[in-house]
Structure formats: C-alpha cells, structure tokens
Write a structure and sequence with these properties.
The complex is a heterodimer of chains A (97) and B (592).
Chain A lengths: L1 H5 L7 H16 L12 H4 L3 H15 L7 H4 L3 H19 L1
Helix pairs in contact in A: 2-6
Chain B lengths: L1 E5 L2 E5 L1 H16 L11 H10 L4 H10 L17 H12 L3 H21 L2 H12 L4 E4 L15 E5 L2 E12 L6 E7 L9 E7 H6 L1 E3 L12 E12 L3 E2 L5 H37 L1 E2 L2 E2 L4 H30 L4 H27 L13 H13 L4 H26 L6 H11 L22 H4 L1 H9 L5 H28 L7 H26 L9 H5 L1 H11 L6 H16 L13
Parallel strand pairs in B: 3-6
Antiparallel strand pairs in B: 1-2, 4-5, 5-9, 6-7, 7-10, 8-9, 11-12
Helix pairs in contact in B: 1-4, 4-8, 5-6, 5-8, 8-9, 8-10, 8-11, 9-10, 9-13, 9-17, 9-19, 9-20, 10-11, 10-12, 10-17, 12-16, 12-17, 15-16, 16-17, 16-19, 17-19
The chains are: A mainly alpha (97), B alpha+beta (592).
Chain lengths: 97, 592
C-alpha cells in the first residue's frame, strides 16, 4: 500500500500524469479507472475539503515537490491539475539540476 | 529575560516567573470566588446562571484591568505575546466561572484571529483599537443547516459596484447583542469549492442593517448571549474583505488553529475547581467513622482526576508553546488538543461528580455550583470544532504522518542524533525558556507529514535510557518503550491496513484517537524530562522524581490502575494544595 502512495508516475509527460492521478483517485474511491473522467470537476466527484488536503499531501510526497494544500481548489479537475504538476516538477528538476 | 533590582541586589526573573507574577496580580484583582464581594464569586455566578443575565459589571471590570489587551498582539499595542501566558491568565476566569470567560471575549479573540493572520494593516489597526478599548466583536461563521460542514454554507456575499451585498442567515453567534463588529464567513463564488468562500469584517452599522434573531437558550454558559443574524442585501465596502477574495476557508482553517489550541488549555481550570470542590466535600464528609478522603477507593479516584488534570495541563502548555516554536506544525497539534483535552476534562468532571455523590445534582447549598460547572464544561467539547471534526482533521494527515514517521523511526533507530530537533523540543517544553515571537504567516493547513513530538521521541527516550536509572525512571523507560512500540504499530497499521480504505470509516478515526493519545503521552514525558531539574520552576518533588509521570503514562496508555502507594502520595499532595489554597496545576497559583 505504501508504494501506491509513494510511487511517482512513469514519466512526467502530461498523459502519464493524467493517467497516474486517475489511478490514484480510482484506487482511493474504490472504483474502476474508467469511471474517472479527467475533465470532470473534483467537486462533481465529491472530493471534500478533507480529501482535497489529503490528495495534495500525497502528491507532494510522491512527486517530491512542495505543493500548496489548496492545490485542488486552484486546479478544479484532473487535466488542469496534471498540467500544473508537470510544469512544477519540470521546473523543480531544472532548479535542482 | 528580565532582571530587576530588589533590595539593591539584582534578581533574575525567568519568563515563567514573569508570567506567574502577571497571573498573581490578576488573581489579586479578582479576589476569592468564595467571597460574595469579590469581582467574580461562585454565589453571584450561580445567580447569573439562574437568571440568565449578562454579567456587564464583571465584563467592564475585566476591561478595566486590561484583559482585553491580551487578545491583541504586541505589535498592535496589545499585550498578547506568549500563548502560554494567555492560557494561564484566562484559567483564572475559567476556574471561577466558565460562562463569564466564554462570554467576556473569547469570541472576540476568535473573530480577531483571521484579521491578525491575513487582514490588511489598516484593518488590523482598526480592529486592534476596538479590542484594546474593550469593544466586543462576534464570529458569524456557522449556519443552522450545515454545522461544521462549512463548505456547504449558503450565506452569500455578491460583488456589487461599491463592494459586496450580503444575504443569508448565521446561527449560534456569541455576543452579537453587545458587538460593535463581526467577522463573517460568506460564499463569494459558486464555481470552485474551497476557493469560493471569503471572510469579511463588518462594522456595527452593517450589523444593524440586518436582523438579529432572538436569543437562543442553552443548557450551559447561560450567562452568554447566543443568537443569530439574518441579512438581506446588506451592503459592505470593499475594504471589509479580510485577505484575498476566495481565501476564506484557508484563512479560517489556519487562524482557528490558534483558538483550538488555547481554548482547551484555558478550560483545564474548570476541572481544577471541580476537584477542589470534591476534596472540600471529602475532607468534611464522615464515612464509616473516618473522613471520606481516607478511603482507598476515594483516594484512587482523586488521584485519577489529578493525573488527568495534570496530563491535560502538560499537553496544553506544550501545544501553546509549540505554536510559537513550530507554527507550521500547529494544524496537527491544535486538532489533537481540541479533541483530547475536552475528552479528558469531561472524564474529570464525571469522576468528580461521582465523588460528590448526590450533591453534584443540587442547585443550592455549598456544592450547588458544581452542577453549573458540569453544564458549562460540556460546551468546551462542542464549541469551535467538535471531537469528530478534530479527529477528521487528524485523519486527513495520517497518511503523510505515517510515512514520514516510519522514515524518522528508521533514521533514529541507530545512533543518529538530531541536535536541531532536540533544541526545538527544549524550547517547547522547558517552561522557563523564552519563546520566539509568533509568526502568524507561518501557519499551514497541514503538517506535511512532520510531527516533532512523536517523530523525535526515540531521540529523547534514548538519552534517558543512558542515564543511571532508579526504580521510577526504570518504570518510565518501560512505559516509553510501550509508547514507541504502540507508535510503530500504529504507523504500520495505517500504511498496511488503512491506506486504500474509505477514510470516513471508524477505523481511521480510531487511529486518529490512538495518535492523539500517544501524542499526549509524549508531551507529558517531555514536560517532565525538560523540567525535572529546572530550578526556576517550583515543581513538587513527586513531579521531579517522575512519580506523577508514571501515573500519567499508565493512565493514557491504559496499562493498569494507579498503585496504592502512588494514589496515597498523590492524594496527600492534592490535600496539601487544597489546604494551602493553591491550584493543582503545574503553575501553583494561590487563590487570593
């Protein structure tokens, strides 16, 4: 179980990031990955304030970058979140060499 | 640090000593609660409770002393510097009358916190002036249909040309009838959850534009005035916005960490008075030819209450100090404090009611005050985040806490040392050490997996184990081993059994409870460890030896009842405090 949280996406392409977040949310909500629509709003999925802060923390640990706890509210669906995360991870890699 | 000249000799007074002097001055001002001529007396407070009257005279006198200035940071001309001082000061009110403490201004303090954390300089100055002059402001946060599910609140603030137009109804607002302003939580955007709420500061004229809902009667704190507020197109200016638009949930989530930390710390004093009343009764009550307090069963019950009380004291002083040393970890510490302390104080109240027997149920006579204390004490748990909400706040951090916790346990399993962590622990727990100024901007919605209390436990425990041990400290080492093992087991359970399961399940909440218990146990241990040889604090020898600590850890870990010699010694100490008219808490304040 620990690996499921710690493991990062296969690569930092947008598609891989979207797939990885979909997998995380599907396993969290105990539903098949096909049931997760990357363009559906987190609100529509029923993510409350508690799961928003938790998901933000999980992403921070898995990607090893510092993320705001309000991340999910700034990027209201998986596609938007993935775009932000890809940019943040790449920027972090550039800074850290 | 303070050095004063006394009899031509320079006398060093530690921060702890300075705080004690402030509390003693305040106690002198308040007078004995047993005398009807004192500012706050049990007799007058019981009458206020029966009549459900607002204690205006008492509030004015507290303002005259300057208590209101302790809601305002020093940088804004107030007296609020250290939260542990504020906690100890307000205990003087709580031990006399919780209704006066709650009604006087704790809602003002809560209302100010979002402004101290995120308000503009102009707004901060304006509100500071109001509070420093004794003005009251309210918090209009909750709604009747949504309780703590605040992201479903329906009160709206719609942007208009000159500012915002407010509509909706707020409920269970303390002090609105006396307020010259209010902090209001309102929905400002329908689209994005979490970013669609904002906070506003409303002036008296704004409040008068809305309708005040009738007073709501309550079981306890009956001298408080609780009501509601209904607004229909009430216009407020742009400068009433606190922080940025859409930041309301984040601002309140951070700011209220402070009040969730200090409020439980203050309420510990309610149980101090409850125990004093019980001991007073047991000293005079004759049973089977002897004083009731001489009975072994009674002594064990008295000792259990004392141990709970002093444990709550340790945790609340620790988290009040942690706020200043490690503010980025206050999200966890505040949730644990607000969950664990009211639960523990509730247990103290139940146990003291048993000790008082039928008298705890009477409304008149020498112990007629106790039933009011019991009713008042129950508000502590439900007001400002219920136990369920606090556990939920812990649950949402458990995954990260388990992972970082396991990494730290592995790191410290060898001979690793972490001087920086230990230095921080020293600052938190050595009660006579000065504290850094509080950084209002350092608060965070979560701990990011960090927990200096439990993640550093192995480091300090190892230092104790390296000492020359006696019988008591050997027992403490054994109990520490149980804390470490229970912590390891809990982290393993979270990562191996809970992650991936429904986070709303009771198992997650049970894990949060267990985490809180271990956190409290660790705080008790550190309080003893860092103060046992502290010459600047007047602790009893039984505290210094570790005897009380063993009782505290056994109780929290539920490893067994307090042994006979321990409860006899503790009861003897409790009786001495009672006879000397001193509080039972770590700071032994003498009643005036």
């Amino acid at each position: 179980m620990r690996q499921a949280i710690k493991s990062a996406p296969d690569n930092f392409s947008l598609d891989a990031m979207i797939k990885w977040i979909c997998q995380k949310i599907a396993s969290e909500r105990l539903v098949p990955i096909d049931d997760i629509d990357p363009d559906a709003s987190f609100v529509g999925m029923g993510l409350d304030s508690m799961s928003a802060v938790t998901l933000s923390g999980d992403l921070e640990m898995a990607l090893n970058v510092r993320l705001p706890p309000t991340l999910i509210w700034d990027h209201p669906n998986i596609s938007a979140l993935a775009r932000y995360l890809v940019g943040t991870v790449r920027q972090s890699e550039t800074v850290n060499g | 640090m303070n050095v004063t000249e006394k009899n031509s000799a320079l006398v060093f007074i530690s921060p702890w000593g300075q705080k004690r002097e402030v509390v003693n001055r305040f106690e002198d001002y308040l007078g004995s609660p047993n005398h009807i001529d004192s500012l706050i007396s049990f007799e007058k407070s019981l009458d206020l409770d029966e009549q459900q009257c607002i204690p205006e005279h008492e509030y004015a006198a507290l303002n005259k002393w300057g208590l209101c200035r302790y809601f305002v940071p020093e940088r804004l001309d107030g007296n609020l510097r250290d939260f542990d001082e504020m906690v100890m000061l307000f205990r003087s009110i709580f031990r006399r009358d919780p209704a006066i403490a709650v009604g006087y201004g704790l809602s003002s303090f809560m209302a100010c916190l979002p402004i101290w954390c995120s308000g503009s300089n102009v707004l901060q100055q304006r509100v500071a002036r109001i509070i420093n002059q004794g003005g009251v402001i309210s918090v209009a946060f909750h709604e009747k249909d949504h309780g703590n599910d605040v992201l479903r609140n329906e009160f709206t603030a719609v942007p208009v040309e000159s500012g915002f137009s407010l509509s909706g109804e707020k409920w269970l607002i303390n002090n609105l009838s006396r307020a010259v302003g209010a902090t209001v939580f309102a929905k400002t955007d329908d689209r994005i959850q979490g970013k669609n709420y904002s906070m506003f500061f409303l002036e008296k004229s704004n409040l008068d534009d809305g309708a005040h809902v009738d007073r709501i009667k309550t079981v306890g704190v009956r001298a408080c005035h609780l009501s509601g507020w209904a607004a229909k197109n009430v216009d407020v200016s742009n400068d009433s916005l606190i922080g940025e638009l859409g930041q309301g949930f984040e601002i309140s989530g951070k700011a209220f960490q402070i009040s969730r930390t200090v409020l439980p710390g203050m309420t510990v004093a309610i149980a101090d008075t409850a125990l004093r009343m019980a001991v007073d009764f047991l000293e005079s009550r004759k049973l089977y030819g002897d004083q009731a307090i001489a009975l072994p069963l009674v002594q064990r019950d008295v000792a259990n209450v004392f141990v709970d009380l002093i444990s709550a004291d340790c945790l609340t002083l620790a988290t009040a100090r942690l706020a200043q040393v490690a503010p980025q970890e206050l999200s966890l510490a505040s949730a644990i404090t607000k969950y664990w302390v009211p639960t523990t104080i509730g247990r103290c109240m139940d146990a003291t009611s048993v000790l008082l027997g039928a008298r705890h149920y009477l409304r008149k006579g020498k112990y007629g005050y106790f039933q009011k204390l019991m009713r008042d004490a129950s508000v502590v748990s439900i007001v400002h985040a219920s136990p369920g909400v606090c556990l939920g706040l812990i649950v949402q951090q458990l995954r990260q806490l388990s992972m970082y916790g396991q990494e730290k346990q592995a790191q410290y399993a060898g001979e690793d040392v972490d001087i920086a962590q230990e230095s921080k622990l020293q600052s938190i727990f050595c009660l006579s050490d000065p504290l850094p100024a509080f950084d209002y901007e350092a608060l965070s919605l979560n701990n990011r997996g960090r927990d200096i209390i439990l993640q550093s436990f192995a480091l300090v425990d190892r230092r104790l184990a390296q000492e020359e041990l006696n019988q008591t400290t050997t027992e403490i080492c054994e109990l520490n081993k149980q804390i470490s093992n229970a912590y390891d087991d809990l982290l393993a359970d979270i990562s191996e059994k809970l992650i991936g399961t429904d986070m709303r399940s009771p198992q997650w909440f049970d894990a949060a409870k267990r985490y809180s218990e271990l956190y409290a146990a660790a705080c008790c241990f550190y309080t003893w460890y860092y103060n046992r040889a502290n010459g600047q604090i007047e602790f009893d020898a039984a505290f210094r030896s570790g005897e009380w600590l063993a009782g505290m850890l056994n109780t929290i870990l539920q490893t067994g009842p307090i042994e006979r010699d321990e409860y006899e010694n503790i009861t003897a100490y409790v009786r001495r405090c009672y006879q000397d008219n001193k509080t039972f808490l770590l700071m032994p304040i003498r009643y005036s």
